[in-house]
């Protein structure tokens, strides 16, 4: 039993390390110092009292990723409420099970007494991940006039869907909306690539240079989080 607990701790620590892009030496600490290495990593990189419950939840999710879904399925069977259905759909989406998430979101939309904005934004995310660009556009256009849609990830995905269907001018308009300083780093990198593909290298370079400058003022957690993005920005800048 102790052996499996140590393995579970190592899996969690490596998962956390991968998500947060920590220092490379932590891999050796976690693997070669076993339980002691995990404890050191948790104390140094993860743990505080407010995060204890979250850590426990994430470990459970790694060991048994379907447990949360099964629990929510039982809740929905007990009470077929709007919120229970959305919670289950969200769990499927989080688990990248988009084909099961979509029907539950669609069922939730039938409840006309609820605010559909959140559900539609989640549908846009799910449809984009199964590369159903037509449906992304259908649902994005239901909410595109709402203030919450402006400068959001949903608008960004709408822009990408438009690009994939060859509607380049509309795509650029919507992708440009997320070009906001000190935010949307990955999205702005994608937008810069879009501009390069549309033969607008000067605009693309300006965005890349802004991201590079902003990266110098990032907190350490954000530098770890966006390390791959920053490296790609620097690689692209070296091609100009």
Describe this structure in words.
- The protein has 240 residues and is mainly alpha-helical.
- Helices cover 75% and strands 0% of the residues.
- The chain has 15 helices and no strands.
- Helix 1 crosses helix 4.
- The termini are far apart.
- The mean pLDDT is 85.
Features:
mainly alpha, single chain, 240 residues, 15 helices, 0% strand
Q: Helicity level, as a percent range?
A: over 70%
Low-confidence stretches: none
Which sequence of SSEs, written as H and E, runs from N to C? HHHHHHHHHHHHHHH
Mean pLDDT, nearest integer?
85
Shape: flat
Task: Describe the main β-sheet briefly.
Answer: none
List the helices and strands and how they pair.
Blueprint lengths: L1 H19 L4 H8 L1 H13 L5 H12 L3 H12 L3 H13 L3 H12 L7 H13 L3 H11 L9 H12 L3 H9 L8 H13 L3 H15 L4 H6 L1 H11 L3
Helix pairs in contact: 1-2, 1-3, 1-4, 2-3, 5-6, 6-7, 7-8, 8-9, 8-10, 9-10, 10-11, 12-13, 13-15
């Amino acid at each position: 039993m102790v052996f499996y607990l140590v393995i579970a701790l190592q899996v969690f620590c490596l998962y956390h390390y991968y998500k947060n892009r920590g220092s490379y030496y932590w891999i050796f600490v976690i693997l070669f110092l076993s339980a002691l290495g995990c404890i050191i990593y948790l104390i140094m990189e993860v743990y505080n009292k407010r995060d204890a419950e979250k850590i426990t939840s994430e470990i459970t999710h790694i060991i048994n990723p379907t447990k949360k879904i099964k629990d929510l399925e039982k809740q929905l069977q007990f009470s077929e409420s709007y919120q229970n259905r959305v919670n289950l759909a969200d769990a499927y989406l989080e688990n990248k099970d988009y084909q099961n998430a979509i029907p539950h979101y669609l069922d939730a939309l039938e409840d006309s007494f609820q605010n559909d904005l959140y559900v539609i934004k989640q549908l846009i995310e799910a449809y984009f991940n199964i590369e159903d660009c037509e449906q992304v556009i259908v649902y994005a256009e239901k909410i595109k006039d709402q203030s919450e849609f402006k400068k959001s990830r949903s608008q960004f995905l709408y822009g990408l869907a438009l690009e994939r269907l060859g509607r380049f001018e509309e795509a650029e308009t919507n992708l440009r909306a997320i070009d906001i300083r000190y935010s949307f780093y990955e999205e702005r990198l994608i937008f810069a690539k879009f501009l390069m593909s549309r033969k607008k290298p000067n605009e693309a370079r300006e965005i890349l240079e802004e991201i590079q400058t902003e990266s110098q003022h990032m907190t350490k957690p954000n530098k770890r989080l966006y390390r791959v993005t920053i490296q790609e920005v620097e690689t692209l800048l070296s091609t100009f």
